[in-house]
Structures are given as structure tokens and as C-alpha cells.
């Protein structure tokens, strides 16, 4: 065997993982942890369980995230970011403000009113006092993004004279709270089923009408703070 052939058969030294490998491992860990957190809650899902589910060592888990709390935070934020990027509305030429608001409400609630997300909401609510920074981050990361989507629609309608708004962002906060957050919270508390069924759609229709009735142009501005 020649020297060149011997060199070619020597095992190569293992180098640092590539960025792609690191991202793939992170995604795998989050997927494994997500299943456990949503099924068992924060307290019920131990670091050992997460490591076993992901088929990694607990040392690797802590080296990548630092603590179980950080894994939990990463799971929740990853879920929100992935779904909101997929749901983010594009520009619409739909002239009817009610239809535009209905489209965005449908997109959000078809995602939020599911057993999976209802389980996530219950876990987040249970840990909100223990991890106030996470609750604030989720608020900014998820709620405020939805508010900005709605605010852009409302501002456009206000500029066209369809609505009369002193503050489109404030009005958008009221819309998201009434139409999106309220049904999601009811499902998390077990007051309604975690499904965007006919009953839920009818409730949303009435909520949108109620909101718009308070925002139509009058002698005095509507929906102002």
C-alpha cells in the first residue's frame, strides 16, 4: 500500500460542528422538549427526560441552553416565531375592512384554538409568576406582533375614512384582546373547547361587529383612548 493510500485511510479528526449541524441539533432538542413540556408541564418535564427524549446527554443539554428554564423559554418563543412567520399577512386589496379583519382573526385562531397551543398556554400561565421575564417576552414577541398587523389595517381604513381612530395602535390592542386573546384564554381555562368550530366563528363574527360599531365615523371620534 502506498503512502498516499495509507494517508487517505487514516480517520479524519473531528472538527467543530458546522453552523448547520448546531442549528439542526437545537431544533431537535426543542422539538423533543416541546412534546414533554406540553404533555407534562414545566415541573413534570425534567432535564433528564428532555435529554433522554432528544437522545443526548444532560451535559450537552445544559451546555447548549444553560438551564431547563432556558429550554422552556426557547421552546415557547420558537413555537410563536415559527407560526407567526407562517401566518404573517401580506398586503391585501380587499376593500372591506370587516373582511380584512376577519381574515387575520381566522388565521390566528385556527392556530391558537388547537389542543397543542391550548396546552402551551396553560403551561405559560402556570409559570408566569415564576418567570415574569418570559411572560413579558412572550407578550412583546407574540401579542405585539399581532397588534402591529391589525394596527396597519386599521390605520389604512382610518386614512380612507372608513373608521375614525384617535390611535390605531390602541384600537388594535382592543381588537386583539377582544377577538383573539379572549377565546384563547377561555380555551386554556377549560371554559370552551380548544377548537375553532362554528360556535367559535360565530362568536368572533359578533366580536368583530361590536369592535367596528365602536370605530365607525361619528360626530365624535370612536375607539379613542
The total count of strands amounts to 0
Poorly predicted parts: none
Q: Secondary-structure element order, as H and E?
A: HHHHHHHHHH
Structural class: mainly alpha
In DSSP terms (H or I, runs of 4 or more residues), the helix count works out at 10
Per the principal axes of the C-alpha atoms, what is the gross shape? elongated
Oligomer: single chain
Please describe the biggest sheet, giving its number of strands, its sense, and whether it closes into a barrel. Answer: none
Strand content: under 5%
Head-to-tail CA distance between termini: 85 Å
Radius of gyration: 23 Å
Labels describing this entry:
225 residues, mainly alpha, DNA-binding, single chain, HTH_TetR
Explain what this protein looks like in three dimensions:
The protein is mainly α. It has helices at 3-9, 19-44, 47-54, 58-65, 68-87, 97-112, 115-127, 132-159, 168-188, 198-213. α2 crosses α7 (115-127). The longest helix is centred in the middle third of the chain and has 28 residues, at 132-159. It is elongated and about 65 Å long. Residues 46-65 bind DNA. Residues 23-83 form the HTH tetR-type domain. It comes from Sphingobium naphthae. This is TetR/AcrR family transcriptional regulator.
Question: Could you give a short description of this structure?
Answer:
This is TetR/AcrR family transcriptional regulator. 72% of the residues lie in helices and 0% in strands.
Give the topology.
Elements: H1 3-9, H2 19-44, H3 47-54, H4 58-65, H5 68-87, H6 97-112, H7 115-127, H8 132-159, H9 168-188, H10 198-213
Helix pairs in contact: 2-3, 2-5, 2-7, 5-8, 6-8, 6-9, 6-10, 7-9, 8-9, 9-10
Amino acid at each position: 500500500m502506498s503512502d498516499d493510500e495509507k494517508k487517505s485511510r487514516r480517520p479524519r479528526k473531528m472538527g467543530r460542528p458546522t453552523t448547520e449541524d448546531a442549528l439542526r441539533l437545537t431544533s431537535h432538542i426543542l422539538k423533543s422538549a416541546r412534546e414533554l413540556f406540553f404533555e407534562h408541564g414545566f415541573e413534570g418535564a425534567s432535564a433528564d427526560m428532555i435529554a433522554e427524549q432528544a437522545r443526548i446527554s444532560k451535559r450537552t443539554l445544559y451546555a447548549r441552553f444553560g438551564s431547563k428554564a432556558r429550554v422552556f423559554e426557547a421552546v415557547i418563543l420558537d413555537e410563536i416565531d415559527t407560526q407567526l412567520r407562517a401566518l404573517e399577512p401580506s398586503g391585501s386589496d380587499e376593500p372591506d375592512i370587516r373582511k380584512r379583519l376577519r381574515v387575520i382573526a381566522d388565521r390566528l385562531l385556527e392556530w391558537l384554538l388547537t389542543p397543542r397551543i391550548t396546552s402551551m398556554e396553560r403551561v405559560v400561565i402556570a409559570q408566569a409568576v415564576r418567570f415574569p421575564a418570559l411572560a413579558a417576552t412572550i407578550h412583546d414577541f407574540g401579542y405585539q406582533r399581532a397588534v402591529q398587523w391589525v394596527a396597519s389595517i386599521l390605520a389604512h381604513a382610518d386614512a380612507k375614512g372608513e373608521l375614525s381612530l384617535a390611535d390605531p395602535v390602541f384600537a388594535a390592542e382592543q381588537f386583539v384582546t377582544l377577538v383573539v386573546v379572549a377565546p384563547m384564554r377561555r380555551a386554556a381555562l377549560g371554559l370552551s373547547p380548544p377548537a375553532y368550530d362554528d360556535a367559535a366563528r360565530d362568536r368572533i363574527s359578533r366580536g368583530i361587529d361590536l369592535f367596528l360599531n365602536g370605530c365607525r365615523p361619528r360626530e365624535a371620534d370612536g375607539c379613542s383612548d
